[in-house]
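Internal ticket - ligand job 486, zinc ion:
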Amino acid sequence: MAIRLHFWGADQTVTGSSHHIECAGQNVLLDCGLFQGHRQDTADINSHLALSPDQLSGKAAPSLNAVVLSHAHIDHSGDLPLLAKQGYRGPIYTTPATIDLCTPMLKDAAHIQESDAEFIGKIRNRRAAAGAPPGPAPMQPLYTQDDATQATQLFRPFNLHQPQLLAGSTADAGFTITTTNAGHMLGSTNVLVEAVEKGQKVRLLFSGDVGRKNLPIIKDPDPAPAADYLIMESTYGDRLHAPMGDVKTKLAGLVKAVLARGGHIIAPVFAVERAQQVVLLLHQMVDAGEIPDFPIYVDSPLANAVTDVFKKHSEEWDAEACAFFHQGKDPFAWKNLHYTQTVQESKALNDLHVPFMVMAASGMCEAGRILHHLKNGIEDPRNLVLITGYQAQNTLGSKLVAGAKDVNIYGEPMRVRAQVESIDSLSGHADQQELLDWMAPVAPTLKKVFLVHGELPAQQVLKGKIEERYKLEVAIPKRGDRFEIG
Ligand SMILES: [Zn+2]
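stdout (structure tokens):
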């Protein structure tokens, strides 16, 4: 027997996770992520990403039987609406928390697509009216909010640690999955795929994104289960994170200094997970008297919707978050924490003349309400811009972290006079050592490792470490590569 693996996304890059597996005539997709990057590059890749096996094989219409989603992040889930738009009506298996997260997140992703297309249309119309050349090429949204709704109706919940036979498969032919907690974000999983054909069985472990111990809110990762082959992420294959314990000390020092000089804290955050983590850390610090109880605003409708999902899924919380609950407190609410929803509420913060903190998306300062807050406060030396997440190359966030003194916000030149600090140890991704440790229990039974979801230089370093420590064969697939395992 053999399983055929077709790598179709997040290959030698960190975005667009999508892997097609086939056995006993059954076709399954592990993740269906959006490829994120510059508009021009992404449109073409995404339109060919939400694959049907028909497209891939060129054969007459074998159909996709099932999709398994490791977790809600858009680079793993963001092309599901496109799959629905292309006519897929089979099940998408994932955890209950992931289903509830994906509902607002996919709708938000569709809204961004629609707004982008509308924005480009406006530019073209304006240029046409002025008799100028048309400028950017016309753009169709990759999918709409209706497509996102259609995709969310295909979700089928499964429980961790319980084997799930996939649609179209039988106990003798096809796929069964069993999932474990990845400890990467709320609802995140590692997926163990057992493929059976002609009385033989092959076990393939898909890591999804590997999390870390001691992250705020969520439980630590489960140990990797036994398998014959491993598809593993490698985002930080060449890096070690700063120790987690330093976060509160650094945060307390920064907050107290800003309050003493009467400034504001402007914090770009990822609306999913990072916003909730920072809120919980601040709540703990206020309760412990480590920082004063001062006004804090979460200014992101998506973060607000996602926080409600976090509250609903307390089964995913770790002991620390549960302790809050058992003291009769809500980890994500206290008197001086405010969630703003409307544009008017957001704009009203501009007129607030007491020290406060505002968290807003996007996390890399590329779009959204954070740009208004930066425009309003970046030139005031009393203020602090607090970066808490990964900043991709060429984003405004990366320029601020690099110490740029002159930046453009909404096309307007601005002088960076505010203090800029970053706290980067809240990452949800395992670093090199944590990846090597996570795979230790599965290493003895492995025949081969496939590294995905990493930039090539990071992957090459990790490949060397795995070969050295575990004496295993390691492949770094390119997009479109096929392998037979079994
Ligand atoms: Zn992720």
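Auto-summary: The CA atoms of residues 407 and 414 lie 5 Å apart. The chain is about 35% helix and 20% strand.
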